[in-house]
Design goal:
It contains 23 helices and 24 strands. By secondary structure, it is an alpha/beta fold.
Amino acid sequence: MTDAAHAVRTRAVADTTAPPENPALARVENLRITFDRDAGDSVSPVEDVSFEVRPGERLAVVGESGSGKSLTSLALMGLVDRVGGRIADHSQVEVLGVDMVRAPEPARRALRGGGIGMIFQDPLTSLDPVRSVGFQLGEAIELHRPALDKHETGKLAVDLLDQVRLPRPQALLASYPHELSGGMRQRVMIAIALAGDPDLLIADEPTTALDVTVQAQILDLVHDLCDERSLAVVLVTHDLGVVAGFADRVVTMYAGRIVEQGATEEVYAAPRHPYTDALMRSIPPLTHREPRLVAIPGSPPEPAHRPTGCAFHDRCGFAEEHVCTTERPPLTLVEGSSDARRVACLRLTEITFPLGAARATERAESTGPAGAADGSPLVSVRGLTKKFAIRSGGFGKREQLTAVDDVSLDIGRAEILGIVGESGSGKSTLARCLLRLIDPTSGRIEFDGRDLASMSARELRKQRPRMQMIFQDPSSSLNPRMTVRQTLLEPLKIHGRPADEQTLVGLLDSVKLPASALARYPHEFSGGQRQRIAIARAIALRPELLVCDEPVSALDVSVRSSLLNVLSDLRAEQGISLVFIAHDLAMVRFLCDRVGVMFRSRLVELNGNPEIYDAPVHPHTRALLAAQPIPDPDVERRRRTMRRDLLNEAGDPSTEGTRNVESA
């Protein structure tokens, strides 16, 4: 640790023993972040944000994309100027006694890594791909603890990897990031963040791209590290479900401001702001099947176009003209609650919500979407196997990786079949084989009684309009140089279908987009709107089978609900069969008639909904269900011990490498 960092840490320790009237480890007051625009004016994505973080506290900052969460975390790190922003003169951001707005850069730099650790969303882009794990971890240790010699540095590196529950830590030092799973990479990032022995850990969406089981393990790991190290954590996320059993306090942000904050138990038991309540109710329940999900209409406003009055009023079902549209609501103490409970709503004393968070664990089974039609299956799969040749060493030596191993299943007409499992379990490979986007190694796939594998390229092309696919990332699946009109016209023209304006408007209407969207380009839409465009393109040819490969995993929970409703409507209105691939069992419970569980390239369980939820058979199915977050703090705390036992029984997916590999 440098002398400057040591001085900062010494001052921080003194602060933690300060009188009770100033117990904060980090303090933010009236934070306003401004960016200058090319037009000569400026915008403020974050305005009037105030909160504090106490020693050893776990604070969750929640909100949709664009709410200002990540910018606020950058302010705590003193990095706003690095992304082109500036903090207003009246704002205060103090961490471990250091003014992160006005202190010179050397003082702020000394605090980063030493006093403050940071875990970023995507470890693959945060880790150097050409440096080994040992080199990168050793570099962090040497930077913050220069007094250690080479032997002590190596010993500490192994100890840090062991603390984050990575197997064979000594051997892992020689590995490179691309050789590790997503969960292992994120654990390495946590070890690097802990190298300077920080007092505050900032985690910016650390589990967004991870499977539900790995997500649960990472959050449980950070939770345990907090207890073991008396570490304070600021967890930034868009999903209220994942923080129920993790956070001590919750801060909800919308349009750059805090709209609600309070103790986790109070917020989850009875959210008081309409936005917090809507976020809570947009989470699909795991315990029963809803006929329809709650979706927040519209999308968050851009910083330059925020409405007057309450920024949420144009999406709020409780807004009143001349009340919510004229005055910006202050953050007000809720009468009868703890000192930390505050809400920014002008109708706070008038609004009563019909349901609280407890609905997720107490409501009876609801009637879900209609089940599959009787009769012969649309798709029949028998003994499907797909192997890939991979390099293993020099001199052209190759091995066979079995991605899908002897899978058999049927997909009924107008049925929605869910396929769940972690990354690497074979879900996406199975999806591509179903449509013969890749050729299976062996097995048989029949579509409406005809074997796809035996079809020529010409015959297969004639079948393409009947089976379509929706990919995970609409940004990469939509051509950025084509307008929405051109995007929708393309498949119609290729297959010689009618392509008039009325047809295009009807496609947009089926995915709840206005006709005005036809003239716009993909970059002018939000992530959820781009995925709706991708769905409209997929259904343009009126397919009988639609394969959806994790179509909502990268989206905010409120946007997910809206798109899941769209997919449910398409089945009901057009009789489309869907294969819905996901790792979130709550979404699958809402949408699907039957559920198949993939594990280590095999289909280990296939059953109806709700049978697979009420009486799971395979240990891995039980592990997936135990890892699925439930928005109830008491339930999540009780499940933590059970979850560890089940994950140990089924295997730890975040620490396993390549499976099912055999010599070629």
